[in-house]
Write a structure and sequence with these properties.
Layout: H1 2-19, H2 28-60, H3 62-68, H4 78-89, H5 91-101, H6 105-114, H7 124-129, H8 149-154, H9 169-186, H10 191-200, H11 202-214, H12 228-245, E1 263-267, H13 274-281, H14 285-290, E2 307-311, H15 312-323, E3 332-337, H16 344-350, H17 355-362, E4 374-379, H18 391-397, E5 408-411, H19 418-425, H20 429-436, E6 449-452, E7 465-471, H21 478-485, H22 489-495, E8 509-515
Antiparallel strand pairs: 1-2, 3-4, 5-6, 7-8
Length: about 525
């Protein structure tokens, strides 16, 4: 970098030299002036090199860039001085904040620039949450920007069983900046009022202004009677901005943050298992979770927002890999045989999903389910951290290891089919095929024996199974669909908990479990 700087400086000097060339011979006086000019040029060349170094540093360090583009004036105020001194005396705080901010700060700054908003606002997450996306306040505010649930809802941020958009950097930043723009317009384009209103609400600021107006008092921010938290909130931000802008002056060594994209928000279009996403992005699952703190479960939300944050350097390869994945492979599906006494909500808890998703996946409108029938349930692609799961949940997710002591033999009878045998033995067709090295078209010889391991979890499909979603077309019948996919009508009825072939309608989605064999 230093060599490059010298080359740039040399080029600038060469250009300057060309601009000062004269064709006339200098007089003795002009020679004196030329010597003086040359001395000045040498001095100016040194300054130019320093300036270039400073500019390059500014371009490379996000903190320097933010500091040089701040708009708010430094205010001579006792509270500002108090908070400034605190930051100066506690440099470790800014070190911790910098580490937390590193993945997100560039993204936030870019969003501010797009809206032409003051870059001081990029520091608000320091005041609000210490740049901790998991921060949660006693007043139930959450995330980097400490949005409350009502505020988040007002600005389109989703919060549900799967996802908390207040913790998501993309969703929460959009909402926070939307709120800032709204408040700025309401507060007569006064940024100090706006920031105060962000903290305590516009009504409180308007009331404080009206109170002063009624008494003939000044209505500038510093003259308003505000709650203690709000009265300290604005000075704290101003002090922090001053410290960031003049870090050298105050002897603070800010850890540089690269002035380049660290994350990218990728449109994933539909629900996606985050373990699979981590594999596609070629990053550790814990790293993916860390930059997507809004995700609360093993997959993105079924109803969106369909976005995932990935490291910038992985974004292009992630999008390419994602494009190769079949829609039905984005999450795994298991078949669960309903037991007597089961309820949809209990089954949903067991498989870490929602009753709503189970209903929609199985075409169920109410809560009635029938023992002995099967449900198709979306589950994680890989076992999650077993430490956080109950014994029942672990059992539901893991295939029990086969044991020779549990092996049983089943003698094939007249009229038997793989499906009938699987149903009677409470196992799956895929398991029968796997245990006995069979194919779909294999002939079952009467009197021959099949091996069965009844203690394996029957609700799980074999690892080589693939679930396909089929949209029923006009004129379709179960027989026609079964013939097309080389399965049986009985299997279609079982997989989709159907009563008979008359139940299917155009547009209906059927689940088919295909075995690669």
């Amino acid at each position: 970098m230093k060599a490059n700087l010298i080359i740039i400086a040399g080029s600038m000097l060469a250009i300057t030299g060309c601009q000062t060339l004269h064709t006339a011979e200098p007089s003795s006086d002009s020679t004196t002036h030329a010597v003086t000019a040359n001395a000045k040029n040498k001095k100016s060349a040194t300054v130019t090199l320093d300036q270039i170094e400073e500019q390059v540093a500014q371009v490379n360090d996000l903190w320097l860039m933010i500091g040089n583009q701040m708009r708010f004036p430094v205010v001579d105020n006792a509270l500002v001085a108090q908070y400034r001194q605190w930051y100066i005396e506690n440099p470790t705080h800014l070190e911790i904040v910098t580490q937390r901010a590193q993945p997100y700060l560039y993204y936030i700054v870019e969003q501010l620039k797009k809206r032409n908003l003051p870059l001081e606002l990029a520091l608000l997450p320091i005041v609000e949450s210490g740049f901790d996306p998991l921060a949660y306040s006693p007043s139930h505010a959450s995330g980097l920007w400490q949005l409350t649930a009502p505020t988040a809802m007002s600005f389109g941020v989703k919060t549900n069983w799967w996802y908390d958009g207040r913790r998501d950097v993309a969703s929460s930043t959009k909402a926070a900046l939307d709120l800032m723009e709204y408040l700025y317009a309401k507060m007569d384009h006064n940024w100090l009022y706006t920031i105060a209103a962000y903290n305590s609400g516009e009504g409180r600021i308007f009331n404080a202004i009206k109170h002063n107006q009624a008494r003939g008092k000044s209505t500038d921010f510093w003259s308003l009677s505000l709650p203690r938290e709000t009265a300290h909130y604005v000075p704290q931000l101003l002090a922090l901005a001053d410290v960031i802008k003049h870090a050298d002056k105050y002897g603070i060594n800010l850890i540089p943050i690269d002035n380049s994209p660290q994350i990218e928000v990728v449109n994933i279009e539909s629900q996606l298992d985050i373990n699979l996403a981590a594999d596609l992005a070629q990053i550790d699952i814990n790293d993916l979770k860390a930059i997507n703190p809004g995700l609360k479960r093993w997959a993105t939300a079924p109803q969106g927002p369909h976005q995932l944050i990935v490291p910038s350097e992985k974004a292009a390869s992630f999008k390419r890999a994602l494009a190769t994945i079949e829609p039905n492979s984005r999450i795994n599906w298991v078949r669960y045989k309903i037991k007597s006494g089961d309820s949809i909500s209990e089954i949903a808890d067991q498989f870490e999903t929602t009753a709503t998703l189970i209903r929609s996946s199985n075409g169920i409108k109410g809560n009635n389910i029938v023992a002995g029938r099967f449900l198709i349930i979306p589950v994680a692609a890989k076992d999650p951290d077993l430490v956080t799961m109950t014994a029942d949940q672990v059992l539901a997710r893991r295939t029990v290891v086969k044991s020779s002591s549990n092996k049983q033999a089943y003698t094939i009878k007249s009229g038997d089919s793989l499906w009938k045998i699987a149903l009677s033995q409470q196992v799956t067709v895929a398991q029968l095929m796997k245990w006995n090295n069979l194919k779909k078209q294999s002939t079952l010889a009467i009197g021959k024996s099949l091996v069965i391991f009844p203690n394996e979890v029957a609700s799980l499909t074999a690892s080589n199974d693939k679930t396909v979603s089929y949209r029923v077309q006009s004129g379709d019948s179960l027989a026609r669909i079964a013939l097309k996919y080389k399965v049986t009508v009985a299997e279609l009825i079982e997989w989709n908990s159907l009563q008979n072939s008359k139940l299917i309608q155009p547009g209906q989605i059927l689940k088919l479990i295909m075995t690669n064999s």
